[in-house]
Amino acid sequence: MSQPSETEVSLIDVSSYLPGEPIGADYYTKYAESDALRDNLMFRAPRLRHHVGANESAVDMVEQAAQGIIERHGRDVIENVDVLITHTQLPDIPFCGAGGGIAHRLGMRPSTVLDLNNGGCAAFILGLNIARQLLSAGVGRSALIAIAQNAAGQVFDHPDVRGKSQASVPGDGAAVGLLTRSDASPILDVECRTYGQYAGDMTYTIDPPRKWWQPGPGAPYIGFTEDKITKVLARGNRQVPEVALAVCHRNGLSPSDIGLLVTNQPNRVFLRNWREALEVPESRHVDTFDECGNLFGAGIPINLDRAITGNRLQPGEVVVMAGFAHAGDFAGAAAIRWGGRPR
């Protein structure tokens, strides 16, 4: 039997957390305002979603998400992690990422801590790419990727925002992924692409206009228009299958070899279009939109955790994760041959 390469890196486990009790779509009915985008397919509300608690921080959410990893692998495995990579949709404190707070809360003393912003809804894949490169280069033997989506119950539930059509779609949640230098569940490949020309299409709008950090009336919200939505739909429909197929083709895989497809979940339209473009049947594409809403960057790892827990991914099968971010300025995909979760 051949020995595993010293530079082979595996995603050996994921665990997740959804805050509070589920909130139904009827919660938003009482706040709904007349909105030119109300009937747009982008904003068809999920049946349920979760909101971060009023006094719940991103660090709190990640601590809860990490409990599954701790229970299955032991606290010492978390405490001895060498690399910590984090992404928080809405940082608790301006200027500061959550990396330091997460490391302290979990009893970690990592040699490398990175807080990511540009990965957006594909942040978990970006984190996989960076962790894989660092561990392969000998920076350490293990890494933890921690993603917190906490904007639904804070930005989108603000009294001045929750009446808008966009407010009922997001949900909150957190997830962590544990990586080691091993061949347990090897990362076969990762593809990350930056489309900087689209970065300016993601806007944060306030009425009356002001900088988001300036005091004044009105609350910020995402600046959607019909024209922007048309462009984002076109980009997302193209980018996610492209990066997924790039990973598959480099590894001699066809869509029929995908045991499980896990994507971010902006809305039902994207979910349907992606699986059709990749010729993956609905039974092999994780879809929690109606239970959780748009989980932004936490969507991929939360969906992967739920699929593993639900016995939808078997040892030896290939899982392909893919997603795009913001208005289409970043997209990524990763393929992993799943080796099974420790019991």
Automatic annotation (TrEMBL):
Residues 115-196 form the Beta-ketoacyl-[acyl-carrier-protein] synthase III N-terminal domain. Gene3D superfamilies: 3.40.47.10. SUPFAM superfamilies: Thiolase-like. The keyword Chloroplast does not apply. Keywords: Acyltransferase, Transferase. It comes from the Bacteria. It holds the Pfam family ACP_syn_III. This is 3-oxoacyl-ACP synthase. It comes from Mycolicibacter heraklionensis.
